[in-house]
Amino acid sequence: MILDLSDRGRLHISPATSPRAVLLLGHGASGKIDGADLLALVAALPGEGITVLRHEQAWKVTGGPMRARPDQLDPGWQFAVRHVAEQWPDVPLIVGGHSAGARCACRGSANPDLPRQVAVLALSFPLHPPGKPERSRVDELAGVPVPVTVVQGERDPFGGADELVATLPPGWFDEPQRRLVRMEGAGHDLVPLKRVMSRDAAMARIVAATTELVSTLA
Questions:
Q1: CATH number (domain holding residue 65)
Q2: Is 176 exposed, middle or buried (0-12, 13-18, 19+ CB in 10 A)?
């Protein structure tokens, strides 16, 4: 089901019957909502009692140029968060996304003006632009005030799993509400090299990590 929002954004809704949680996902700067990770969640989670909504930014819907800055993405994301919270007022809202969508979710989770979000799922958090580690965005992830699961490829040019751990405060992932899922052999798309892990196995790991996150909130 597709719902056009009044800000010209769009929600792609994959509903669960009597959902125990709602997962709102944002796309990356390319605007791709059919990446392997997002589609795996759409295919698996409704059957687990989790409604999945993929948010498409207005600039993508209208065919405009790619946008990636927080001031360009956050208004649309915040609009979607408010809309979803209003439509499912009694269901826990988990936010997340891929790459730039993960950044939106992290920033939004710390915004006191938004409805309550109970957890964050960060898929391929872009720690920095490729080849520019000095332009770190680690504060966005470190500032998440709710439980967070980060799924990170070991070969990600935006910052692999080891680099992410080294950049965050010491012991950050030692807290029980924070989890890092390392994707061996995977780049920014979270699809691993075939000799390391099959695509299906990798997507199953992402689904399992997400359902575990939801279960810890029950």
A1: 3.40.50.1820
A2: exposed
Phi, psi (rounded to 5 degrees) for 3: -120, 120
Which 8-state DSSP code applies to residue 90? Answer: T
**Domain limits for position 129:** 2-217
pLDDT of residue 64: 72
What backbone torsions phi and psi does residue 50 show, to the nearest 5 degrees?
-120, 115
Rounded to the nearest 10 degrees, the angle between the axes of helix 100-109 and helix 70-87 is 60
Q: What is the pLDDT of residue 7?
A: 86
Q: What is the pTM of this model?
A: 0.94
Can you tell me the distance from the alpha carbon of 148 to that of 126, in angstroms, rounded to the nearest whole number? 15
Lowest mean pLDDT among 61-65, 114-118, 211-215: 61-65
Cβ neighbours around 178 below 10 Å, total: 19
Q: Domain count of the chain? A: 1
